[in-house]
Design brief:
It is a single chain. The protein is built from six helices and two strands. By secondary structure, it is mostly helical. The chain has a two-stranded antiparallel sheet. The longest helix is centred in the first third of the chain and has 13 residues. The chain is globular, with a radius of gyration of 18 Å. 8% of the residues are buried. The N terminus is likely disordered.
Length: 106
């Protein structure tokens, strides 16, 4: 007999028997798209201006090339530590690399 799924809070999804990767991904998307908040960045532009490949930037920052690609495509928001590393690497304030946009849901 399957376990009953009862949630009092959104956080229960990560503790209860109903948790699975699809639910987690759907919830993650919904939470992050609420209000259409978006974090855009100039990473690809800055990297190309300096003639760097994704692999070279990734090695300098000690992350994977996939991390750089995901950042550039807007599929991943950096940790604060990675944002600071990028800021120092490019010699720019974080706000000149990352642009936070807030708007209404469509």
């Amino acid at each position: 007999m399957p376990a009953k799924c009862f949630m009092e809070s959104v956080l229960d999804i990560f503790r209860g028997p109903c948790y699975d990767d699809n639910v987690k991904q759907a919830l993650h998307f919904k939470i992050h798209m609420k209000g259409c908040e978006r974090l855009k960045n100039r990473l690809e532009e800055l990297r190309k201006e300096r003639g760097l490949r994704q692999e070279e930037l990734a090695a300098a920052l000690e992350v994977t090339r996939q991390t750089i690609g995901s950042l550039e495509n807007g599929r991943y928001n950096p940790s604060i530590l990675l944002a600071f590393k990028l800021s120092r690497y490019f010699g720019l304030p974080i706000e000149e690399i990352f642009i936070y946009e807030e708007g209404e849901a469509t």
